Task: inverse folding
């Protein structure tokens, strides 16, 4: 039940156990923590497979791990031992929610755990629905996006760098947990939820019509470089070598772009020549190369600052391409209330992002990530009633750390 | 309140009004509909800016629109007229939840609407937190990913084809709605939630360390083609020209890959020569080119079928690159319970994806998308008490359609 009415911590009072590694489930747990839940990540002693993942500091501390485990508590225990499994089972039963991507373990399966906690919410992320393994980069290869990403003249696949499926899967996982919490509040019943990473990718590609157009029209998307499919959208380069992305979704955007680039008459003449109606977004897409040829001259003749000033005075959607280092050092990060200074042991002080959804104008900020096992003794004492003597015995037996 | 205990329709009984276009908010509304909510998309007469978006059928019906509005009801009204605005305000007040990406309209602002419905849940997606405009492709340009995507020798930016920020933003929006519903159930209070698309991208890039490594280590990610950063992951091509993505996250995966490609001794010799310890994932990443040179010979000497058979017998994570058309026609779609046959007026019959999260083993399936305005009269009668005479008058005044 909700214990406090704090609108920016709506999940306060909810306790969740996370047994995870890599991106999707850690992101889910962190998101739920940002919403106010107490999230206890349980790891093997020494850390899970993601504990040393790059990027790392000069001393070898994982910046990556710190980034995806902000605001959690950490318990470290030997989950290969019967006593370690028993502790974790009791912790899950006491908490009432498990999120995990460690699939197929009988000891923390839905059937086993609901004998201890009948109204358990059990959310399991797997690679594929058939039980097969898969990670973002293999799943992505099998969906179709790499074959249409990158310059049109390229034949080889181009992988994404953002693990987009992991990210989507992580947010779906958080959504599943909150939906199940609300359902349990109302009905008293728990739920068994499974989210195969591959199905997240397949559903998304399907929702966005990438499969449907093949089924219905018998053709599939081609590689079109940096053009936006079905709209007028294209990248341009300034006289001093800076790239810009331009999108004209509406006739007003498109008219403004022509006006800015002093091509209104040339665009009209092109429409006449081609018999094209540029008030139709499809026509703007079909003839994008001719249009880009016209617009490109203006971009090539102006500096980045001139282009930015010009575009700012129009309705055109645009952005200057930036590197991660430029963004990290620029106002989108340094002057954005989404980010706040975080002192992260092992990593140092940095600007850490909060939840991107703002509640009543506030982005719920994140606390630092825990040291591995930092909360083991406290959590076992608080929720399982372990005494100091119990903790000492478990520690000397190497069951906890 | 939850009216039915159907575990696969946990949001049954919730009614949501959506005023939207494009991807993020339509995806949010569809996701909430898949979870059992009644979602009423309200559009201008003739459709919003996304109503004709590509891909389209030969007859010009938008496959895209049908894909992102499955299972909703549709109301069409003239939202520039005072009477149209009044109808929509009353519908929102009666429903209690608004999701929208039409930002900055006073008549459906939080302040205006909470005078009619004090416990309203109001979720607004905007381009940027500062009120500026932005769409996925412009936001993405400003974050940093296009500068590190694609072949290492490339200097130009490479855009993603998947609108990953829209997708993430849409699922965050659904998460925000359900979180606020649970909070309202418990406290009786509504919420004002804002989700800037750019902040979704910034938070995600930040959570995944892309900014943090620049802040902490003073360096930023380089363009590394299809390699997986910090791990051993690489694409290879078979003797018959088929591409495969290979990922070895663990020492076991890596050892299996060496064994399959008959390079165990060569890898050991390479480790000796380089003084490298390949049990360390960072070392496998650092020396990926030398390793890929060794493994690549085996791939180039075998057909795609031989490679698939060989990899299947190992722990290595792998996938064959596929085109959208191949996926649409293959068992990942045609033999996957995630997909079910949907008869979509205007588009035809196709295999449509359900929610990728399965509740008690069931992926909640989607109904067809509505025809624009198909539910206007029914919704106004059911929730605003409009009579047949009211509907006739509003129709002849062109206030509804």
Result:
């Amino acid at each position: 039940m909700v214990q406090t009415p704090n609108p920016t911590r709506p999940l306060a009072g909810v306790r969740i156990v996370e047994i995870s590694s890599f991106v999707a489930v850690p992101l889910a747990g962190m998101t739920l923590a940002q919403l106010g839940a107490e999230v206890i990540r349980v790891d093997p002693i020494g850390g899970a497979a993601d504990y040393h993942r790059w990027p790392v500091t000069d001393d070898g501390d994982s910046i990556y791990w710190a980034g995806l485990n902000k605001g959690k508590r950490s318990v470290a225990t030997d989950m290969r031992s019967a006593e370690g499994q028993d502790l974790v089972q009791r912790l899950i039963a006491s908490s009432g929610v498990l999120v995990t991507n460690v699939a197929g373990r009988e000891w923390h399966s839905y059937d086993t755990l609901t004998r201890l906690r009948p109204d358990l919410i059990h959310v399991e992320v797997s690679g594929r629905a058939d039980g097969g393994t898969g990670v973002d980069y293999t799943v992505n290869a099998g969906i179709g996006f790499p074959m249409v990403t990158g310059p049109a003249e390229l034949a080889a696949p181009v992988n994404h760098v953002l693990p987009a499926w992991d990210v989507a899967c992580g947010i779906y996982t958080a959504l599943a947990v909150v939906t199940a919490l609300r359902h349990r509040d109302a009905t008293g019943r728990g739920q068994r939820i499974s989210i195969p990473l591959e199905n997240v990718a397949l559903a998304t590609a399907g929702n966005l019509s990438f499969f449907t157009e093949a089924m219905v029209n018998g053709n599939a998307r081609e590689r079109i470089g940096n053009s936006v499919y079905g709209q007028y959208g294209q990248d341009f380069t300034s006289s001093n070598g800076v790239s810009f992305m331009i999108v004209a979704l509406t006739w007003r955007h498109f008219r403004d772009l022509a006006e800015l680039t002093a091509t209104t008459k040339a665009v009209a003449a092109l429409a006449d020549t081609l018999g094209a109606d540029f008030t139709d977004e499809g026509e703007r897409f079909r003839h994008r190369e001719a249009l880009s040829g016209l617009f490109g001259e203006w971009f090539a003749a102006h500096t980045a600052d001139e282009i930015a000033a010009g575009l700012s005075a129009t309705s055109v959607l645009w952005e200057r391409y930036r590197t991660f280092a430029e963004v990290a050092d620029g106002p989108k990060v340094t002057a954005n209330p989404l980010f706040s200074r975080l002192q992260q042991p092992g990593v140092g002080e940095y600007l850490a992002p909060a939840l991107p959804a703002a509640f009543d104008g506030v982005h719920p900020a994140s606390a630092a990530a825990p040291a591995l096992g930092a909360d083991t003794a406290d959590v076992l004492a608080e929720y399982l009633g372990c005494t100091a003597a119990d903790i000492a015995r478990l520690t000397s037996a190497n069951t906890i750390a």
User: Anything to note?
Assistant: The radius of gyration of chain A is 26 Å. Chain A is about 40% helix and 15% strand.
